[in-house]
TrEMBL record:
InterPro entries: Ketoacyl_synth_N, Thiolase-like
UniProt domain Beta-ketoacyl synthase-like N-terminal: residue ranges: 40-210
Protein name: Beta-ketoacyl synthase chain length factor
Compositional bias annotation for Pro residues: 35-47
Signal peptide residues on this chain, from the entry's feature table: none
UniProt-annotated stretches for the region Disordered: 31-52
């Protein structure tokens, strides 16, 4: 059965060395360089000032790219179903939780506790934007962005409505860093739509195939981010930046792969 063609709008990306899609796009194309010194974490304007200060890094970068993708798509955040994907959630907060519970459990911060859950970022997003459409939080270790993209594609095709996809991961710290490798901060987002619009940047044909290896990263800027938990998103965003027709394999497991066929529309 042929799956319906979908359309990508508003790609957005943020990393300390690539703070915004225009910087990332130029670096992925070999037409620009990562920023030096690295940028400080973003301050997403979708949040009220008090929430902006209290939000952890994971929420800050996720909401930054989600807002950028929605703005570039020309859609209304409150109307968009959304899927948020993260391999690890917020490892720094989880490290704090474990250390505090082991040493001074009565001193555990309620604010940090509610920021420790995996769906914290999508919760902040839906509250801040007033979105009452369906929302979902997905985790699949090193295939988390691929799993989120598959979920968003199924929702978009089934319900015949646009879906916001946002992925994010942050630095692993403390004892967790010996078991979980994730360097720096990286977030990426896009809107999947069931039909083309003036904001469409590429069409997307997709299918599930037997296990296949992930493509190699093509730019130094992307390779520098390859140890982040969201690194499986990078080949797709390199392809979108280059504006080339291509086929990409995004492994979902050792036995199954999400195969994408991209064709730029502008």
């Amino acid at each position: 059965m042929k799956l319906p063609t979908l359309y990508i709008e508003g790609p957005a990306l943020w990393a300390s060395t690539l703070p915004g899609w225009e910087v990332a796009r130029a670096a992925f194309r070999g037409e620009g360089a990562p920023v030096d010194p690295p940028a400080k974490r973003p301050s997403p304007q979708v949040l009220p000032p008090a929430e902006r200060r209290r939000a952890p890094d994971s929420v800050a970068i996720a909401l930054e790219v989600a807002a950028a993708a929605v703005a570039a798509s020309g859609r209304r955040a409150e109307d968009l179903p959304c899927v948020f994907a993260s391999a690890h959630g917020d490892l720094a907060i989880n490290d704090y939780m474990c250390a505090t519970l082991a040493s001074q459990p009565t001193m555990l911060s309620p604010t940090k506790f509610h920021n420790s859950v995996h769906n914290a970022a999508v919760g902040y997003w839906t509250i801040a934007t007033g979105c009452q459409a369906a929302s979902n939080s997905v985790s699949a270790f090193t295939s988390s962005f691929a799993a989120g993209l598959l979920e968003a594609a199924i929702e978009c095709a089934t319900d015949d409505e646009a879906v916001l996809l946002t992925g994010f991961d942050v630095q692993s710290v403390g004892p967790l860093a010996s078991a979980v490798i994730s360097d720096g901060m990286l977030a990426a987002a896009l809107v999947l739509a069931p039909s083309a619009t003036p904001q469409t940047v590429a069409s997307l044909d997709w299918e599930l195939v037997r296990g296949a290896p992930a493509p190699s990263l093509r730019s130094d800027a992307a390779r520098a981010l390859a140890r982040n938990g969201l690194a499986d998103a990078l080949p797709l965003f390199e392809a979108l930046a280059r504006g080339e027709a291509t086929t990409l394999d995004m492994p979902l497991s050792g036995h199954q792969t999400l195969r994408l066929r991209l064709a730029p529309t502008r």
